[in-house]
Amino acid sequence: MESFEENRVNQPLLESKKPRPAPVPAGEEVSSELEDILSDTNLSLWSRLRKATWIELKTLYILAAPAVIVYLLNNITSMSTQIFCGHLGNLELAASSLGNSGIQLLAYGVMLGMGSAVETLCGQAYGAHRYDMLGVYMQRSTILLMATGIPLMIIYIFCKPILLLLGESRRVASAAALFVYGLIPQIFAYAANFPIQKFLQAQSIVNPSAYIAAATLVVHIFLTWLVLYVLGWGLLGAAFVLSLSWWIIVVAQFVYIVKTERCKNTWNGFSWMAFSGLWDFLKLSTASGVMLCLETWYFQIMVLIAGLLPNPEVALDSLSICGTILGWVFMISVGFNAAASVRVSNELGAGHPKSAAYAVVVVTSSSFIISVIFAVVSLVLRHQLSYIFTGGKTVSDAVSDLTPLLAISIVLNGIQPVLSGVAVGCGWQAFVAYVNVGCYYVVGVPLGAILGFKFNLGAQGIWSGMLGGTAMQTVILLWVTSRTDWNKEVEKAKNRLQNWEASKEKNQLKN
User: Fold this and answer.
1) Which residues neighbour 17 within 8 Å (Cβ) at sequence distance 6 or greater?
2) CB-hemisphere CA count at 13 Å for 337?
3) How many whole angstroms separate alpha carbon 379 and alpha carbon 391?
4) Distance between CA 386 and CA 436 in Å, rounded?
5) Residues 179-237: tens digit of each pLDDT
6) Are 258 and 201 within one domain?
7) 370 and 465 housed in the same domain
8) CA angle, 59 as apex, 436 and 197 as ends, to 5°?
9) Closest CA to 104 of 68, 145, 71, 153
10) Residue 15 domain-assigned?
11) Residues 85 and 95 sit within 8 Å (Cβ to Cβ)
């Protein structure tokens, strides 16, 4: 998307009385120590790289570390509910697992993906010091995500017949549906949380979200224990507590935005402008949602295909164990994904092509090195990994056979999510969505099915084929990123801001 034109004057419903600094005119570059060092020809190449790397690494890890903690804690919050339910019985474990990993994953992927449009726009506006637009973008995204929550709610309501249609037993489907009903408020918590979270990340405000997530986890565990083991409210009560916990996160983050001095320039109250330009915003949000959902669902499809194998039990157990390990390591990559999108969008908005390009190199290299370390550890411990989750030599041998594929997946996941973050920072979501469709679902899924069933390679064949799709997508993104003209990307970011500035002045003259 090339621009977002604002169709009416910004009229805050709740006006802040705090003085606001004069913004930098749209298109004017903002000074940067990193850009100055990279552009200083008086320094040797080694001196420039050494100083630039130190500056970028400090900035990167200040962003990435808290982001990793946030995603891990949010994941643990959902997993703790599943663990508590599992202690009630096998039926409750199956129901909560199906609700968490199946139905809930749909809403999570859609909302997180659509919310990433805020990363592009808020990041670039913040980099250009167009602070007054960040709050408008956050509100606009929240409106669209709340509207998207309505069809998702309908899917939740009718999840029982959907699960029965997919082949689940009536007993499990009924219990899972009860759990999912309690997750309906969580849909709209997602709709508010992700725009708020991206709004804060665009300003490099990440630590408060981590503190809030940690405190909420403690409250969540206590309330879940109380509801299940003292009050005896069962699956529905556990799901309601999970929904409540997400709303606690939303409210706490919004209170922080309203009360803190750090957001006094970016949050100026509710604005009527949030209701203008929704169509253009929807197009970018939809592309973002499709991009992320295609990635989120990819491994789930592999597990579903594995369930069709002649002896699915061992295959599913081994894939589930490897998938859980991959998911935990993936949380680290997601943190780097967030850092990459913030750094790239900020530098593009500020008019710093060299800094944006160098940020891509540093964040990708850092994530790659960490992923290689985890891949080596998984190979060394390949015979012991399964015993963390279950006993039995059969499953252990199956996991050991899959570990080389797990290691390759870990390495690719150290690169691919970061490049997706770069795409978000630049606003390439629609392009990446097309790449994902081709690589994942035109190449990866069919190739995995052929290797798994036609050539009788089982779970290894399915994973190998789908790994080929991931590798193809990673190579394409690496090629596109390496060939990017960062000066043109800066111009695109400037054009967005200039178009908004011209539209705003035009509307002010009319009024």
Assistant:
1) none
2) 24
3) 19
4) 31
5) 889 999 999 999 999 999 989 988 888 899 999 999 999 999 999 999 988 888 888 89
6) yes
7) yes
8) 55
9) 153
10) no
11) yes
Do 138 and 244 sit in the same domain of this protein?
A: yes
Q: Which residues contact 34 (CB under 8 A, 6 or more apart)?
A: 52, 55, 56, 352, 354, 355, 358
Please give the Cα distance from 188 to 196 (Å, whole number).
13
* C-alpha distances out from residue 61 to 78, 162, 164, 424, 506, Å: 26, 43, 46, 19, 42
Place of tokens 């990279």: 38
List phi, psi (to 5°) of 12: -60, 140
Residue 6 forms part of a structural domain: no
Are the C-beta atoms of 153 and 140 separated by less than 8 Å?
Answer: no
Q: Closest by alpha carbon to 75, among 246, 206, 273, 192? A: 246
In this structure, the answer to whether residues 162 and 301 fall within a common structural domain is no
- Specify whether 454 is located in the same domain as 418: yes
Q: What residues have CB less than 8 Å from 160, skipping those under 6 apart?
A: 173, 174, 176, 177
Look up residue 131 and give its amino acid: Y
Q: Show the tokens assigned to 177.
A: 């549906």
Query: Residue 123 is part of which domain span?
Result: 64-275
| Residue 231 per-residue DSSP state | S
Asked whether residue 240 falls in the same domain as residue 331, the answer is: no
Crossing angle, helix 393-413 and helix 416-426, to 10 degrees?
40
For residues 477 and 420, the answer to whether their CB atoms sit within 8 Å is: yes
Is residue 49, in this structure, part of any structural domain at all? no
* pLDDT one-digit tens code per residue, 101-158: 677 777 888 888 887 777 778 888 888 888 888 888 899 889 989 999 999 999 999 8
Nearest to 243 by CA among 223, 257, 258, 218: 223
Question: Shortest CA distance to 68 belongs to which of 423, 367, 438?
Answer: 367
Cβ atoms of 432 and 291 within 8 Å: the answer is: yes
- Could you give the CA distance from residue 355 to residue 46 in angstroms, rounded to a whole number? 16
Q: Alpha-carbon distance 308 to 311, whole Å?
A: 8
Residue 7, judged by CB atoms within 10 A of its CB (0-12, 13-18, 19+), counts as: exposed
| Distance in angstroms (rounded) separating the CA atoms of residues 305 and 360 | 35
Looking up tokens 């539209």 gives 503
Dihedral (Cα; 371, 372, 374, 375), 10-degree rounding = 120
Q: How much is the pTM?
A: 0.79
Q: How are the residues of the chain apportioned to helix, strand and coil, as percentages rounded to the nearest 5?
A: 80, 0, 20
Say which residues have a Cβ less than 8 Å from residue 101's Cβ, sequence separation at least 6.
Answer: 300
Let me know how long the chain is. Answer: 511
Please give the C-alpha separations between residue 376 and each of 368, 379, 406, 415, 440, in angstroms, as whole numbers. 12, 5, 10, 16, 26
